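Section 5: illustrative case.
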């Protein structure tokens, strides 16, 4: 992407201080980076983000898991257990627009890096905390992972075959959706800051997001007290809307009311009885009897746009191969990650220079280890030196224009 295109992105000129790790927080900051923000990722000296080692597969020494949510970022290693490391984070917070963290509630306060402390240094700071269960309540101190929260939040209960056990979704969707929610909340807070001159605190929990994402399932219970159940690939209200077996391979069929009115259900290749449409049990039985005898190619010709065969082998790779994906060059900063990522802290020197420091860091803040230099999202990296800075005030290079936010 050209320099001009970089500056034309909506969040260009916005600095994100990313203290998060694993998936939900990094996914949030990656979205902001894709939109043009400068993301400075703070990692543990030596080991870095936990997901760097979550493989195989690996590419260029980095796990595919880590690469999936850490593009367009600079890495700086800081030891928060040491006073100088804490001071350096404060210096970065002075000149940042957004801080994102996903530590257990209370830990940032013990470090002296909580919102109330940092807002005194930078009243315009948007501070986003991502936790499992929120900042208060009986579960606040519990750690939480996607699989556990999908169970607690009801998603696992409604996922799986009708007569089978609850099942987790194939991707860490609770973490991913939390990252999306958090990025939207941050952008709303930045918009509010433009009007008020003041930052905001965002409390984003995986449990809140997961319950919200239950959508119509939650509404069924809130409106009618209806308990949810598992339907496999079927839908409790729309028929046909599921995967059917055929003599070739499984096939996904979705026919909505508008499709039926257009006559799609009357095409003989489907053999679905019109009188059963809208009646789940009868229609499911009719759909299985009819569709189960059809060739996939005939089905595809019968209902264009409503039928899609599931191909054997690596099914999840299909969206990346089909011509219906994004046009070449459309992804921009959101394209496949560059495999030439740096070791933890590998961007320390340029990140410090950009924030107003010229000198390398003392050992008090930790020292990086691992591979040599490389490139991350087109940013040149320095040597893997220690990561904190000595002397100087980062705010000197970043004039803050703020109004009272008391």
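Designed sequence:
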């Amino acid at each position: 992407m050209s320099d001009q295109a970089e500056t034309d992105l909506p969040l260009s000129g916005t600095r994100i201080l990313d203290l998060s790790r694993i998936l939900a927080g990094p996914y949030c900051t990656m979205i902001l980076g894709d939109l043009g923000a400068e993301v400075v990722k703070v990692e543990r000296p030596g080991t870095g983000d936990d997901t760097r080692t979550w493989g195989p597969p690996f590419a260029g020494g980095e796990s595919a898991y880590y690469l999936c949510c850490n593009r367009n970022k600079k890495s700086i290693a800081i030891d928060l257990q040491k006073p100088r490391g804490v001071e350096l984070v404060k210096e970065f917070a002075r000149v940042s627009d957004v801080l994102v963290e996903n530590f257990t509630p209370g830990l940032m306060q013990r470090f002296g890096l909580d919102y109330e402390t940092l807002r005194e240094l930078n009243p315009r700071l948007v501070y986003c905390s991502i936790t499992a269960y929120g900042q208060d309540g009986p579960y606040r101190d519990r750690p939480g992972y996607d699989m556990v929260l999908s169970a607690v939040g009801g998603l696992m209960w409604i996922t799986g075959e009708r007569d089978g056990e609850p099942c987790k979704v194939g991707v860490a969707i609770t973490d991913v959706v939390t990252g999306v929610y958090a990025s939207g909340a941050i952008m709303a807070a930045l918009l509010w800051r433009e009007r008020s001159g003041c930052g905001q605190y965002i409390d984003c929990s995986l449990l809140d997001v997961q319950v919200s994402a239950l959508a119509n399932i939650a509404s069924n219970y809130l409106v009618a007290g209806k308990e949810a159940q598992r339907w496999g690939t079927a839908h409790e209200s729309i028929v046909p809307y599921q995967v059917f077996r055929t003599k070739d391979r499984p096939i996904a069929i979705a026919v909505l009311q508008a499709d039926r009115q257009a006559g799609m259900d009357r095409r003989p290749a489907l053999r679905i009885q019109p009188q059963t449409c809208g009646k789940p049990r009868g229609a499911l039985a009719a759909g299985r009897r009819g569709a189960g005898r059809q060739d996939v190619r005939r089905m595809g010709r019968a209902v264009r746009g409503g039928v899609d065969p599931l191909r054997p082998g690596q099914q999840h790779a299909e969206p990346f191969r089909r011509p219906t994906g994004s046009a070449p060059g459309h992804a921009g900063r959101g394209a496949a990650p560059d495999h030439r990522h740096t070791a933890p802290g590998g961007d320390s020197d340029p990140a410090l220079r950009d924030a107003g420091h010229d000198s390398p860091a003392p050992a008090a803040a930790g020292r990086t280890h691992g591979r040599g230099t490389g490139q991350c999202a087109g940013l040149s990296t320095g040597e893997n030196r220690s990561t904190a800075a000595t002397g100087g005030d980062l705010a000197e290079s970043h004039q803050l224009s703020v109004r009272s936010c008391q």
